Amino acid sequence: MAVKQTAGRDALGEFAPKFAELNDDVLFGQVWSREDRFSLRDRSIVTVVALMAQGLMDSSFRYHLISAKNNGVTKTEIAEILTHAAFYAGWPKAWAAFRMAKEIWTEEDAVADARAKHEREMVFPIGAPNDAFARYFIGQSYLAPLSTAQVGIYNVTFEPGCRNNWHIHHAKCGGGQILVCVAGCGFYQEEGKTAQELHPGDVVNIPAGGEALARGGTEQLVFPSRRRSSGRRNRQRMAGGRKRRRIF
């Protein structure tokens, strides 16, 4: 489904309001939305070729290459599309287009390769994207239930750059949470305390009513957590950091 576009109004809403309206409401709002007649994937291919033929290798071309990838155009397909168009649009234009396309599709490969490597090195599965709890995270996390009988055990993986929000596990009695870092590197912090670095084998006992957070560091951070409901007072957050960069 086409995404509602606001780029025109964001950039030119005051300077050229009519142009902004036509860009957002007609071009993207009406033309791109006619998916019953022409799919988003095919529209992306036509747009990429048209821009390449004009030699427009600017931010708009990059945007449409990213859209093409998001709409299902694969690396193999974009290479064939640009190669075919090169004979009609011009060889130098194809070279310029390939430089940008290679950047965009290589970024995807690097992320996929890193995830696959990480999963091979870990004893537990990464699981599926943690969509059900995505509103509590910034960035991509994954969830793999390891055991839901007796005491629930879950493997939670944070991609670099991912973190979760401060939160509290409520309980009428008992409670608490145990985090076990099994792969990657990250940080954990309780409210009012200094962040502590976590490595495989490190165990964190979160007391009932404890407010805390955790995040990934140099690589993906994985917690198979033995979950118990915690008390009302303390909150927790887990988060993933960017490579060679600390947030705290």
List unreliable stretches of 5+ residues: 225-248
* Count of individual helical segments: 6
Number of domain units: 2
Shape: elongated
> In which order are the strands of the major sheet placed?
1-3-4-11-6-9
Give the CATH class of the largest domain. Answer: Mainly Beta
CATH homologous superfamily identity of the largest domain = Jelly Rolls
* Topology order in helix (H) and strand (E) letters: HHHHHHEEEEEEEEEEEE
Let me know the number of strands.
12
CATH architecture name of the largest domain:
Sandwich
Rg over CA atoms, rounded to whole Å, is 23 Å
| Main pleated sheet | 6 strands, antiparallel
Give the proportion of residues in helices: 25-40%
> What is the straight-line distance between the termini?
38 Å
